[in-house]
Amino acid sequence: MLTLLAFHGSGRDETDLVEFCRKLAPNAHLHAPRGQFAQADGFTFFRRQPDRSIAAAEVVSLAMDWIAQEIEADRPTSGDIIAVGYSSGAIFAEALLSVAPEMFAGAILLRPEPLSPGFGFPRMPEKPILIVAGERDERRRPDDAAVLAGQLHRAGAIVSLHIIDAGHGWARDDVDLILGRSWLATLPAK
Questions:
Q1: Closest CA to 184 of 25, 29, 6
Q2: How many Å is the Cα radius of gyration of the chain?
Q3: Which region holds residue 40: left if phi is over 0, alpha if psi is between -120 and 50, else beta?
C-alpha cells in the first residue's frame, strides 16, 4: 500500500499537509511527523544559519538520526513510500533521500531549495522525483529548482520539474494538487 510521508514547512506542524495529501492520494496511508525544533508558532525539521543559508552537513546528520528513530519506532521503512515535502520540509526530504534513497519509491518536492549548490546525491537510478516550484517565489533563487533537478538527475533520478504561476504559497486552481496526482498516476502500480 502507498504511504505518503509528509514533511511540513518551517513554522508549521504535522497537520499542515494532511488535507493536501488526503486529496493527493485518498487511499494512501499517511504519516505526518512534526519537526523537532520550535519555530515561530510551529516547528521545523532543521534550523537555518543566521544568514538564512542551509548547513547541509547538519541537515543530513539530522536526517540520519530521523531515519534511525523511525526504524526503531517501527514506522514504514520499505515498500511504496513517497516523501512529500513543502518548503523546508522539501529540503528535509532531500536530506532523507541522500541518506536512505532505498527507503523511498519517490518524492514530491514543493517549493524546494538545494541543500547546497554543489550537493551530491548518492546513486538513485530511475527514482521518480516531482519538483514543483513557484515562478514568483520570494523565498527562493530563480535557479534553485533547476539546480536541484540537475543534482537529482546526475544521481540517476527521473525528475519531473514544473515551474508554475505561483509564489511560495499554494498555486491557484489546485495546480500543485493536479500536478501531484498526474505524477502519481505515472508510477508503476505495485
A1: 25
A2: 15
A3: left
Region 70-91 average pLDDT: 80
In 3D, which of 180, 131, 190 has the Cα closest to residue 21?
Answer: 180
Q: What is the pTM of this model?
A: 0.95
The enclosing H or E element of 93 equals helix 88-99
- Residues 40 and 84: beta-carbon distance below 8 Å: no
At the fourth CATH level, which superfamily is domain 3-186? Alpha/Beta hydrolase fold, catalytic domain (3.40.50.1820)
Mean pLDDT of 120-143: 97
Q: How many residues does the chain have?
A: 190
163, 152 Cβ separation under 8 angstroms: no
DSSP string, 8-75: --TTB-TTTTHHHHHHH-TTSEEE-PPPSEEETTEEESS---TTS---HHHHHHHHHHHHHHHHHTT-
